[in-house]
């Protein structure tokens, strides 16, 4: 069966998930999911001696669902430590529902082969794990969810977490947790907060046990069943890894300059506007150019959102933005800022981006800068599979932010090496073209014709403007027509749209 | 049927609620209650033009349950404003489930007589409303719940709030609310936070609409459906009314001095201890005496808890306590402190005192100072009905705190006017004697024999010590034997223990 973005979804999958029918068609009232609560009485302790004891006390059994957060990113020790103990205990057939999976989680491949893990849902799958999934090592397809989509799935009960194992940069013995104090400070615990709120059993794993009561409280004692102290939960180096070096690449700087011009030239650029730029060299450069204009024009933003970097913290400290709304931090300075600046505010993933919430912050967002591995003639975006069809990306907040904000801007080079970015048809649709307003490349921009208001408004903009078809043709002129990927028959990943419907599937290669 | 505190509970009530069997007997795992969530999409507004429009949009119908918070205490305008609109709309047969009811809510009497309100659950009932209930104007008995008990009832689903109308000292248009900014700053919104989290529909009513995003966030936009701006939500004078003047009464000062000696003489008085003293002249005096000792002995408390007053704020600012954990503020300085001092931390009622939570803060509390209208030979305490049997008090956190803390101390004069405080049998049991450790009067103290460890430890204490029987006899020697109250047959109030079982009933007078 074909869905709204013209993707073929097998009927049995449509029956189970429904098919994507448009950004806001399948957002309906629902009864919120619930957890089983085991009350803790006076004089009872939550502090356990080991992860093994916590696994046993939690009642974890074959077939259950467990979760982890990805705030430590490439520096995470927790998932591998816990999975090793679980495997040693002989527990099998688990569903793994972390907020995301990083390269550092390569040991998962063995746990999959050994039947410890038989189902996975995640925002991202990197390197070796992604490649192994694409090869088809799992019987059941992985379910890829956006950050907002995961929060929705947990709130609606599509994901029910039996036991959440949450790395806690600091915790007291009763389970009051924050991410701004400790040895491995990751800052915001926005993704973990959701797991703690809905899971039946929650285990806080910390390497920094502090006196009661630990404040500020990101995860409260009322959402934690057990506390375990370990030697180390994460590597601070790894938390900031890969994030955010300012680019000196002329092509990237040109893209960033064009993107900044698009924002500044838009009707959204005024006192009190808001934006999210994310990470990566070009994004930081956009922020830099935008900052110069804001200083020149005397314009201040009401808030910046998202994955936060030091570039955002500088804007806050210089008074150019009034507040930072923070679901995740990508470097150490932003984690430190969250701990000390009252205008740098932590929120959970539900408030950040869920389509099923009583109103997410992205609904109030003016401009979002987003990346793409591929964007096609329908403006559909792929941030998940490479040009070889192998899973190596992450859904993240891409489809959430772009759907909700007033103007979404894709920044991407026209070609990468010998690979075109603007293509006829993306390998995998993560974000439907209806959510994308402007595509910015180093040779110029393409505005989505569905946004005639922007087409009109940008007529006077001094940036080369093309149709998306013209951008694609220029890309193909340079590197030629990409070879078609030879997929197998097996579906290795289901791409769930933020509303829970199926927007695409990924087959083995 | 007789319960654990030897009170006769009619069988049909026992069938519905169960009977009190001991403080921790009926605390069991349960599936948490849930709300119906109506998602808010991008570009949808929550801001409505009037309370009337909000009532209509909320879908409020005959027979539903509505709630309010009591953080404005005697200064509250919200409940009366909303109830007047509801009555004008002709909606009937509502269950009213506010966190408490004050004198200022006298108009409720008319709404009860007119059938707008047919069921009530509350912590307290004062003056005219209490008297009217005691006269028997309601067909169905009021259910009295402690602050922790109400949080438990909401979490377990015993109370399901269809629509919560929450006074918001400040809010943005998307429903981010706090109590530290605005015209009627009440400080902590600890009781309101629970309603917002579990109610199907939540209406934030504010007189101070601020730009988005309003921070700090006590109640997040994800828990609010509608926002209404009105002229005024409360009278700041009334918020602090009746609270906390330091006593000059020699009898009260003597009681306070004895209470402080009990704390200082106990094994709990050491570096990092914690306490809750509440409001009222004698309590403040206890804090004053305790402070002098802490300075002299160089001892610092890890935290103070509860209803917070300026006396606690002074301890924090002087470095004598490390943190304030705050569910409610009783005066303006404490509300201000919450807004500016990072070590003054806001929590909700579930985290404060619920027996059904994954661990309340009171479970970590060393010492609690509590008041009493009556205490009897079994150490049972009455804080609800007067010596005439008329309802005029509030359950508050009395039974919660005393059950959970390490040492609960009742401070009360032996007699009030011509009325004995220490009696053979209290009119109404709010807190079972098993939760009470020490009774302090102006003539000396009585230690609960069930706490032989304290009896032993206090042998050397230079305070006159009596049995509770001796205190009662001395009281009766002075004022004579109290006349028995002539109750009617009708049950006007059910006293629910914090675990949801029935500890006592109140009949009409």
From TrEMBL, chains A, B:
One Gene Ontology molecular-function label: citrate (pro-3S)-lyase activity
Biological process GO terms, please?
acetyl-CoA metabolic process
Q: Does the keyword Transferase apply?
A: yes
Q: Which reaction does it catalyse?
A: citrate = oxaloacetate + acetate; citrate + acetyl-CoA = (3S)-citryl-CoA + acetate
Lineage: superkingdom = Bacteria
The EC number(s) attached to this protein equal 2.8.3.10, 4.1.3.6
> Main subcellular localization, coarse class?
cytoplasm
Q: Name one GO cellular component term.
A: cytoplasm
Q: State its location(s).
A: Cytoplasm
Per UniProt, the keywords (alphabetical) are: Cytoplasm, Lyase, Transferase
Q: Which PANTHER family does the protein's record reference? A: CITRATE LYASE ALPHA CHAIN
Q: Which NCBIfam families match?
A: citF
Official protein name in the record: Citrate lyase alpha chain
Native source organism of the sequence: Vagococcus zengguangii
- What taxonomic ancestry is recorded? Bacteria, Bacillati, Bacillota, Bacilli, Lactobacillales
